[in-house]
Amino acid sequence: MRFGRISGLVVSTFAFTAPAFAQETADAVAPEGASEGQVQALTEEVIAAVEAKLAGVPVQSENWMVAAANPLAVEAGGKILRAGGSAADAMVAVQVVLGLVEPQSSGLGGGAFLVWYDAASDQMTTLDGRETAPLAATPTLFHDENGEPLKFFDAVVGGLSVGTPGTPALLEEAHRRWGRSPWPGLFTDGIRLADEGFLVSPRLAALAANDAERLARFPAAAEYFLPGGEPLQQGLRLMNPDYAETLRVLAADGAAGFYGGDIAAGIVNTVRTAPGNPGVLSGTDLALYQVIEREPVCATYRSYEVCGMGPPSSGALTVGQILGMLDSYDLAAMGPESVEAWRLIGEASRLAFADRGRYMADSDFVPMPTEGLVDPAYLAERADLLNAESALIDVAPGNPAFDHAANWADDVSLELPSTSHISIVDSYGNVLSMTTTIENGFGSRLMTNGFLLNNELTDFSFRTHNNGVPIANRLEPGKRPRSSMSPTIVMQDGAPVLAIGSPGGSRIIGYVAKSIIAWADWGMDVQQAVSLPHLVNRFGTYDVELGTAAEGYVDALTTLGFEVSPRDLTSGLHAIEIGEQLSGGADPRREGIALGE
Ligand code: GLY
User: What angle do CA 249, 254, 260 make, to 5 degrees?
Assistant: First the structure.
């Protein structure tokens, strides 16, 4: 155990306690740490939760638990749960505070997917609050005047990339279905913190400094994130009166106050007048926005059913495919230090990503072989490909059962890490897993009414066709871009046993799959599972987490024929195990905590 001093408190710095990774990598993957001011401002419970994370042990509780990316947001959710609110109520309070204190990752200007286990009815429901492409958008939105795809950041920054936000409608819909607390009270902490100010966290300060050039392009974002021309400083008390006003409108008028009136007008005006890169979002797009309930997608893994969000997210299908292919391999016997285990995980992931690139998109717009992709017989066939001594040379999509004739070309659209994940269990036994995003860090960099607007449309494939064959995830008006967000609830014998999810672009899928394997096969507790160093394979490169014990696999994986790339892998996993007690884990790579009573 190593010790560091934060704000006069002695706290242990992060060290792996997972038996497999006994090699301490504390400094290399240490969290960005709580700022001095933050620790002083927080309650004893929150400080204890920070200490638990830093010590690598799960937080335990009897009645309820909330795990999310910022202590102030977690505390807001905890207050609601303590007062008898449901997980849906607490989620609203968490999300509105996250949109203030972690504005670069998620907020009212973005979208989210929510997975809900309802204890009273023993039902699982998934809600799709994904952004939609404006009705005036065409498939060639991200093409230049020569018909060539724009460079990624030329498309991201400005109005062109902004989809119709879904998060405010999702908050209202979740509360309408499962809320127990009065709606206006869910905004109390968000409004107070926006009015009185909050202390800028180390992560927000570092990310604003890193992104200063892009943020400087638009006056509202520049004024807020670069006050006086300088990036926000850690520990600065930052107020956001415009956001407080937006929350007051939401608290009083519900989502209608967001999708119509002054807030909507501000969004549309900001998008359509963005200097250099105006977009096409309209008041009609906002007025027509709908949350969609969808069938959960579940895949069998060992004695578990791993359930999550179906299309337009590729999350549950791809996590399910990876786990389904690995089901016939005894990873438990191999253990987490086995090169063979990581070969299998990496290859299963490559095969799953090949199917993802070919088949997965918004199933309201393109026919998808959703059931075929997680059919155990199909996955067993794909799993046979893993019977090899070295890395597969050719990784191609398979042929899942499909009741529709379709010919799709492969898509390799880019998704960069950002986003945020919330896991909550309430005292009634309800479980919520929600991943929420504005896509890139700081989204489109456009800000209005105190919040940032998303750049979710760049999750579409910029190319519409390859060699004349259409790409399933091409942009179409009203369509939802394919996502990798993987909010997950794991079931066993008909009861929920784990809620988990992460940010991280398309690496989300690998982070979530790996953590479930660590927990289910390698006997790690939730904190060990989320802290375990990452090895992630998507399109072929085997990414290993820089500065951790994962780097110890570089030579062995290279010898097997993988192209290995050590790099920062900043997940933000938040997990709650539901057993005799609740047990929470928060990712040491970000600023979140798990809190319960
Ligand atoms: N924008 C990240 C995702 O939806 O996967």
Answer: 75
